[in-house]
Design a protein that fits this description.
The chain contains eight helices and 30 strands. Strand 20 and strand 21 form a beta hairpin. The longest helix is centred in the N-terminal third of the chain and has 17 residues, at about 155-170. The protein is of the alpha+beta class and about 525 residues long. The protein is globular and about 70 Å long. Helix 1 packs across helix 4 (about 155-170) and helix 4 (about 155-170) runs parallel beside helix 6 (about 330-340).
Length: about 525
């Protein structure tokens, strides 16, 4: 929906960190300056492209010189946090290695970046990530009508934003597919993203918070879809669409390595993170803080956004190559991609987070301004405005499982504890039968209860053949692809429900014969459908 909005711009001056480079553990490319001095930044989108247009929230480090890829010293790593840093900081390394395959994360952009795919290839090659291209089906760029070509006019600021977005999706969820929608109407782009199969959408942009946004709310309301938006970079204050009750509002932190902590990292609320009360959006039922009365409070969750502890990005359209960037433009795709690792939750995304806040990293220091009550602008135990409920600590809070969402071991039969769910002959060929077999501790029987209620062995997922829904449809091993054929929801009676078919994982005729291939069948509560999961 197109709408007339009021746009407000606040410039942020980032302060430096004494001797605190975010990539201090890695080599610094020749031609870049150290981060020990004053950190200076510039908004990638310094002004709206036209009156009433949204602005992107990318903040570019200007005290560091952009460096082209061929200027990197041998074995040097670009300044700024890279994929392994972010995965370690947020306990996502295990999930990133095995989850998200086939899931699509969409990013929405107001203008074209003609170099986006080639620059993404450079970023992924630098960090050893698998290729993500149009040719292999991983990368797709479309206009607001869902077609390739006829994109909006180019803009270097939005080009920088687009590079940041696709690089952060790649960093957190290397196996995810990436859909880039370049459109003049970013509200309507939500509907286009959903129509093209995206279940996770990141919006690193915003407009002023006003009652005119109420009409656009519906564009962000899609069952089974996680829509995330940046809260802004102007400190205390809010923007749309982060204020929408249908959106997960992503705030921002300063993220630093700290070997003196058990986590190895510390975080504080970033001074530029948007936070506070919407002037018009009613408070959702899952949000119970009192500081905003009956209105929506921002943020819900957060990730790194401080440019002084920023992320590495590669862009040759808006920048000169490698550079460091921050802003809540970084936190939005990080959060959307964490949801993709976890799988789409059965309930609304934000309500799942609020029900599992203990599985997040609580951020208890830092501030983005002055306010009353103080928690709306100050990091504190529990919920606060700048960082919401906290930052990712694995995928548990995002899938609704709590904890890290990961446990590995054998799945034993309810008929006999000596029988295990087994990948026949330890084969990783797609459609390889999954059977019962005597428990032997082999890798063919090591199943990970992973994010999104998937069961994974040897890097692949337990799968209903051809997404079957009929009694007797066989079960096999297949590339993880985020479809309903690979979702197995544990039930209180020990059964594993496949919601796509409405049926349960079943041992045909309660067989105890080794080599019997498993199937799905009407749920009946018998021992043939009782499975003991690891952990």
């Amino acid at each position: 929906m197109k709408r007339s909005v009021q746009w407000v711009l606040t410039l942020v001056a980032a302060t430096g960190l004494a001797a605190a480079s975010p990539a201090a553990h890695a080599a610094t490319p020749s031609g870049t300056s150290a981060t020990s001095g004053k950190v200076t930044t510039a908004h990638a989108c310094s002004e709206p492209l036209h009156p009433g247009a949204p602005v992107c929230y990318a903040l570019v480090r200007t005290d560091l010189h952009a460096l082209h890829d061929d200027a990197l010293s041998p074995k040097a790593t670009p300044s700024g946090y890279g994929p392994s840093d972010l995965q370690r900081a947020y306990n996502l390394a295990s999930a990133a290695a095995s989850s998200g395959g086939g899931a699509t994360v969409a990013v929405t952009e107001l203008a074209d970046n003609p170099n986006l795919e080639s620059d993404l290839a450079t970023y992924r090659a630098q960090y050893g990530l698998p290729a993500c291209t149009t040719a292999n089906g991983c990368f797709r760029k479309v206009n607001g009508s869902g077609q390739q070509g006829n994109y909006p006019g180019g803009d270097t600021g939005w080009g920088t934003e687009a590079s940041l977005d696709v690089d952060m999706v790649s960093a957190v969820c290397p196996l995810c597919h990436i859909l880039v929608i370049e459109a003049g109407d970013l509200d309507a782009a939500q509907n286009e993203a959903v129509s093209l199969g995206a279940h996770f959408i990141s919006n690193s942009w915003g407009t002023g918070d006003g009652s005119g946004d109420a009409g656009a709310d519906a564009d962000f309301n899609h069952a089974g879809v996680v829509d995330v938006a940046s809260t802004g970079d102007g400190g205390y204050g809010v923007s749309f669409p982060a204020t929408s009750k249908y959106v997960v509002a992503a705030g921002g932190t300063s993220l630093r390595q700290d070997s003196g902590t058990s986590r190895g990292w510390t975080e504080s609320a970033w001074s530029g993170a948007g936070a506070g009360c919407s002037s018009w959006e009613a408070k959702p039922s899952w949000q119970t803080d009192t500081g905003c009365g009956s209105h929506r409070t921002v943020a819900d969750v957060s990730a790194v956004a401080d440019p002084a502890t920023g992320v590495a990005v590669y862009d040759t359209y808006g920048q000169g190559g490698w550079f460091v960037v921050g802003g809540t433009s970084a936190s939005s795709p990080i959060i959307a991609s964490t949801f993709a690792l976890a799988g789409a939750p059965s309930a609304s995304a934000a309500s799942v987070l609020y029900g599992h806040a203990s599985a997040l990293n609580d951020v208890t220091s830092g501030s983005d301004g002055s306010c009353s009550p103080s928690y709306l602008c100050t990091g504190t135990a529990g919920y606060d405005g700048p960082t919401g409920l906290g930052t990712p600590n694995g995928t548990g809070a995002f899938s609704g499982t709590g904890g890290s969402g990961q446990a590995t071991g054998p799945i034993t039969s309810g008929i006999s504890s000596s029988l295990c769910v087994d990948d026949r002959s330890s084969s990783t060929t797609n459609l390889n039968p999954v059977q019962i077999w005597g428990c032997n501790g082999s890798s063919a029987q090591q199943w990970t209860v992973a994010s999104g209620n998937t069961l994974q062995a040897l890097g692949k997922c337990l799968d209903v053949n051809s997404s079957g829904t009929a009694d007797g449809s066989t079960v096999d091993l297949y590339d993880c692809n985020g479809t309903g054929a690979q979702v197995w929801q544990p039930q209180s009676n020990g059964s594993l429900l496949n919601p796509n078919s409405g049926k349960c994982l079943d041992d045909p005729n309660s067989s105890t014969s080794e080599g019997t291939q498993l199937q799905i069948w009407d749920c009946n509560g018998t021992g043939a459908q009782h499975w003991n999961l690891p952990g």
